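Narrative of accomplishments. A recurring question from our advisory board has been how the design workflow behaves on a single, concrete structure rather than in aggregate. To address it, we present the structure tokens for one chain from the evaluation set, followed by the sequence designed for it. No filtering or post-editing was applied between the two.
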């Protein structure tokens, strides 16, 4: 009975296992005593080695931790396999460079030996490796790396990739598959002079197999543990079987491609890597399997590089190559930046990067990209970019150049107060009408003589804001108004000047930039003047009867004081900044738009006549009101077209990303300056029939009815959209229509319509060049 037991198979197996274990422990005992002369390391367990301390799935992190304990050269055991780890720059460099020969061989684990069978470059040693590496290097230099040829191939592939991305129309998608295709294609172009269509099922299967091979090779069961430690287990491991099948299937596909290339191969004209190899083979008789393995591994390497680089460095928007320090300043005309940026967008697409000196700026161009960013990513693109000059002037207070909670509170306050005192209310309509009448009277007094439109229009528009903010208007001859208008337009002009842009790029130039000094002087004057006005209003404040925005602010301030609110945003600094913001953001923009309107009417008298005919027919001589807009389709279309062509805030007011964001496949880091290029939207060739012509037809249908257009966004969009949009639209409509009801605008004597110059003065805003017009009285119809 016992004999039988002893002779049975399980008994032998048990005996063999015990024997192996004893041998193993003995091995470790000897080995461990030996280890004193070897690099230190954690104590290994029998059979398992240090696998309990080193998780194969977190290898790099665990080894890094161990290096802190055992120093830059240490030993670990992956099961029974002893591995020496080199850590830190100096040690790695010393080993790889000073001992290049000693550390120069590749470790060929069983799994990689299965793949390559001693062929190729990546997992070979000795003469084969040396020869193949030399060959691949020289051939890649000819067909690939560092040459224009490869740059062209990469650029071509990028175009295909962009097209693929565009199909998703901004919707979320997993980009890994198509990005894999692109990388595979770039290597394929170098290897076979062939790119595959992304939809080709054979290609898709090949890339999927390669990708899967990389994943399986890294899987714990294959790479670190079972198979590499106990290779005889291979056929029993599912991952190993799958891996071998992947490799064999892809090998078959490559063989097929190489066979096809061979048919048209001509040793005198090398088209690609494979051709070069075949030529070399003819001369030297290199084995075909070496070729196959070189190709297979270069393709795998391509994908591997992609997966590493895409993890660490997401793709940023393309753009012209920047120069050190200067960035792309040589490609951007600082006096016409919107034009240069539009030109660049033709080459680099709808999302691109430019460097203003060392300052990186992402530009969004075209209606679709701008709208998508501002509306679909409101939070991500919702911060204001605070340039050095804006910081100098606003110091984070107010609305225009502020962010965070203070901005939120001030914007909310201003919006609700403007609603009460300004936009869309009868109250503001009455104020605009009253101001319009003052202006008409002032123009009448000129008796048709030429005059510069700037001054009068500025005074009238500024008075609308003083009425909203302070609760009263000023006479056009009042020095307070004159000074206020001058300061506001000076500040806009100076902040958009080329030298201040230069200061924004190189803030250390500060003291030497004269325009910056002038701007800061104006800021100080503003703080004093606005501060004095606020004090005067405070003295006569009656909380039950607010005269304007300042009164409302003072009431809120008092309420917060009474409630002992700490960290209140209702501070004097914020009040002064809000008031200054409304003057500077509201005066120059609206009056430039109106001045463009009058200039365009003088230049295109047939359009002016059509407006006047419509007003005469439908309104007669009574006062125009906002509600008339619905009944004056042609006039409304002309007003919209004026705003489109005027394009007064041509670069919008630059934004900044509030967090890291991936937009249209590009990674944009938190805090990056973003320019939503409004010029490119208002003249988007894919949106407007005649983008560069003054054509009211853009806003009319075939029946002459007004149609709104989606790409009409002169006030931008999203959560920072112009706060005064409603007020500005009312201003422009009532002033424009009322002025045309009373006057015909013509060029001054001696100047023809053709000679009227439409070249803009470009700063922060885009206004007409100084000019004169005559206003010939029509008698109010
Ligand atoms: C035709 C006239 C106007 C045009 C074309 C215009 C255009 C713009 C644009 C493009 C922006 C940037 C929006 C963004 O970042 O998305 C802006 C912001 C602003 N606008 Fe206007 N604007 C005009 C009139 C006004 C008026 C009349 C006021 C005030 C009464 C005003 C007050 C502001 C303010 C306070 C901001 C900053 C909003 C913020 O940062 O939250 N604007 N404007």
């Amino acid at each position: 009975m016992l004999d039988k037991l002893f002779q049975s198979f399980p008994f032998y197996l048990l005996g063999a296992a015990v024997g192996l274990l004893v041998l193993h422990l003995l091995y470790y005992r000897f080995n461990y005593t030996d280890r004193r002369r070897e690099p230190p390391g954690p104590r290994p367990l029998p059979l398992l080695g240090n696998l309990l301390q080193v998780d194969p799935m977190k290898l790099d992190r665990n080894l890094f931790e161990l290096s802190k304990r055992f120093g830059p050269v240490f030993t670990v055991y992956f099961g029974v396999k002893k591995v020496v780890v080199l850590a830190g720059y100096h040690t790695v460099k010393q080993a790889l460079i000073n001992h290049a020969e000693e550390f120069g061989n590749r470790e060929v684990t069983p799994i990689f030996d299965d793949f390559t069978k001693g062929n190729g470059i990546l997992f070979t040693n000795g003469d084969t490796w040396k020869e193949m590496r030399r060959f691949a290097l020289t051939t890649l230099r000819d067909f690939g790396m560092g040459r224009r040829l490869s740059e062209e191939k990469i650029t071509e592939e990028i175009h295909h990739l962009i097209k693929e991305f565009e199909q998703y129309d901004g919707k979320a998608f997993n980009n890994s598959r198509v990005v894999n295709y692109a990388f595979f294609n770039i290597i394929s172009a170098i290897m076979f002079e062939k790119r595959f269509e992304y939809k080709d099922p054979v290609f898709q299967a090949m890339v999927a197999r390669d990708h899967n091979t990389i994943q399986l090779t890294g899987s714990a069961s294959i790479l670190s543990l079972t198979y590499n430690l106990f290779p005889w287990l291979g056929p029993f491991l599912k991952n190993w079987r799958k891996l071998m099948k992947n490799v064999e299937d892809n090998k078959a596909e490559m063989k097929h491609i190489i066979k096809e290339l061979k048919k048209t191969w001509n040793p005198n004209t090398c088209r690609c890597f494979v051709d070069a190899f075949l030529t070399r083979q003819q001369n030297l008789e290199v084995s075909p399997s070496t070729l196959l393995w070189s190709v297979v591994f270069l393709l795998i390497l391509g994908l591997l590089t992609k997966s590493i680089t895409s993890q660490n460095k997401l793709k940023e928007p393309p753009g012209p190559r920047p120069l050190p320090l200067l960035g792309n300043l040589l490609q951007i005309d600082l006096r016409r930046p919107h034009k240069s940026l539009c030109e660049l967008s033709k080459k680099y697409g709808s999302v691109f990067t430019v460097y203003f000196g060392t300052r990186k700026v992402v530009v969004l161009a075209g209606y679709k990209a701008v709208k998508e960013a501002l509306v679909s990513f409101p939070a991500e693109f919702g911060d204001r970019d605070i340039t050095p000059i804006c910081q100098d002037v606003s110091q984070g207070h107010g609305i225009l150049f502020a962010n965070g909670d203070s901005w939120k509170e001030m914007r909310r306050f201003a919006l609700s107060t403007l609603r009460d005192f300004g936009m869309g209310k009868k109250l503001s309509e009455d104020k605009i009408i009253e101001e319009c009448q003052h202006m008409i009277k002032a123009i009448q007094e000129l008796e048709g003589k030429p005059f510069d439109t700037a001054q009068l229009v500025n005074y009238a528009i500024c008075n609308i804001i003083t009425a909203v903010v302070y609760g009263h208007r000023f006479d056009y001859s009042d020095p307070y108004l004159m000074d206020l208008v001058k300061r506001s337009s000076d500040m806009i002009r100076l902040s958009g000047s080329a030298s201040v842009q230069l200061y924004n790029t190189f803030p250390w130039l500060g003291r030497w930039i004269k325009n910056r000094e002038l701007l800061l002087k104006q800021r100080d004057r503003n703080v004093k003047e606005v501060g004095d006005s606020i004090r005067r209003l405070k003295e006569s404040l009656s909380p039950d009867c607010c005269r304007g925005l300042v009164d409302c602010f003072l009431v809120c301030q008092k309420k917060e004081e009474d409630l002992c609110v700490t960290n209140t945003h209702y501070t004097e600094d914020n009040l002064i900044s809000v008031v200054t913001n409304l003057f500077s953001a509201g005066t120059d923009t609206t009056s430039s738009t109106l001045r463009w309107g009058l200039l365009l009417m003088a230049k295109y008298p047939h359009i002016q006549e059509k407006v006047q005919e419509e007003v005469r027919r439908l309104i007669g001589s009574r006062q125009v009101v906002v509600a008339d807009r619905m009944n004056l389709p042609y006039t409304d279309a002309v007003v919209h077209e004026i705003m489109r062509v005027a394009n007064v805030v041509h670069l919008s007011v630059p934004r900044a990303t509030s967090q890291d964001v991936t937009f249209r496949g590009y990674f944009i880091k938190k805090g990056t300056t973003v320019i939503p290029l409004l010029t490119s939207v208002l003249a988007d060739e894919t949106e407007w029939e005649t983008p560069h012509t003054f054509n009211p037809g853009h806003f009319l249908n075939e029946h002459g009815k007004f149609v709104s257009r989606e790409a009409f966004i002169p006030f931008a969009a999203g959560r920072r959209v112009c706060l005064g949009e409603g007020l500005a639209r009312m201003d422009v409509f009532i002033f424009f229509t009322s002025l045309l009801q009373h006057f015909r605008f013509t060029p001054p004597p001696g100047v023809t319509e053709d000679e009227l110059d439409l070249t803009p003065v470009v700063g922060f805003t885009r206004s007409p060049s100084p000019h004169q017009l005559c206003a010939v009285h029509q008698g109010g119809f």
